[in-house]
Amino acid sequence: MEKNESSLTSLISAFGRAYHSKYDTPKIFDDYIAKDLITQKEFEDIRKNMIQGIHFFNHEIGIKFQDQPDEILKWITQVQLSPTPLARAAYCEKVLFHEIVLGAEQYVILGAGLDTFCFRNSELDTELEIFEVDYPSTQDFKRNRLYKSNYQIPDNLHFVPMDFTKDKDSILQNLIDENFQPNKKTFYSLLGVSYYLTKEEISNLIKELFAEIPLGSSIVFDYADDKLFEEKGVSNRVQNMVQMASASGEPMKSCFTYDEIEKLLEDAGLLIYEYLSPDVINSKFFSDRSDYLKAFETIHYIHAVKK
């Protein structure tokens, strides 16, 4: 991503969450604040571009619904844009609340984008310190949107601006500089990020994050399996995802077998507590639906714990 640009990926992800909150039922993950971080013009521009681009996603659907633009948008959003951001957020926050009960006092959101957890859970302001790590430009963009939407930044929310793939400074030191306490049990989320890092970058990142924090601290992240660059998926949506990421200037770089992920975590002193395959994700979050929403074919979720 270029300097001083906010992440297009995070904006489109927020659009998907906002669309789901407003139009879809039942809800997988209700991010009712996401709409406040997108201007009406941005929402309409994304809507227009998606509808006009239907022939990239699916030529037959474009013909079938050529006189029904809202149905085209629903198809693109539910098939292509929303499934992974919705389900991984729902899974992550379910695990997080369990970890809070077990004593987690800090939540670090890596690649936070336009995450709204802090504002949807203001009752945790004295229980949980929240640290959002992302590009400085993305955080400036978010601060501006929060200000314009009259959201006050609470004392327990800390912004940690950095590109942890390029900055030479220690990510742990950057967190400590923002009042992170290495002696406290911590929960990390790394959602929608691992695909854009090399395997070495992911390994080094996780090792550093867990080097000094207490046993029982944990992380939830999603990753792409080793079929990422081969699998086409329903209506070529996996192939489309890879192509769109590249076109946006944030190309996908890594994919893993389960054994590779297990070894990477083991080397960092972590054990896999829970693993969700695409089939399990589909069963947990997308069963009994009458719309287009269905789990992505190549995306898996992991909850790993420092033991």
Any overview of this molecule?
The protein has helices spanning 8-23, 40-52, 54-57, 59-64, 69-81, 83-101, 117-120, 136-148, 171-177, 199-210, 237-247, 258-267, 278-285; strands spanning 106-110, 129-134, 157-161, 186-190, 218-224, 270-276, 299-306. The chain is 44% helix and 14% strand. The chain starts with 7 loop residues before the first helix and ends with a strand. The protein has 307 residues and is an alpha/beta fold. The mean pLDDT is 94. The chain contains 13 helices and 7 strands.
Topology:
Blueprint: H1 8-23, H2 40-52, H3 54-57, H4 59-64, H5 69-81, H6 83-101, E1 106-110, H7 117-120, E2 129-134, H8 136-148, E3 157-161, H9 171-177, E4 186-190, H10 199-210, E5 218-224, H11 237-247, H12 258-267, E6 270-276, H13 278-285, E7 299-306
Indicate the proportion of strand residues.
5-15%
SSE succession: HHHHHHEHEHEHEHEHHEHE
Number of strands: 7
Q: Count of DSSP helices?
A: 13
Q: How far apart are the termini?
A: 35 Å
Structural class: alpha/beta
Q: What is the gyration radius calculated from CA atoms?
A: 19 Å
Poorly predicted runs are none
Keywords:
single chain, 307 residues, alpha/beta, seven-stranded mixed beta sheet, 13 helices, 44% helix, 14% strand
Q: Outline of this structure?
A:
This protein is an alpha/beta fold and 307 residues long.
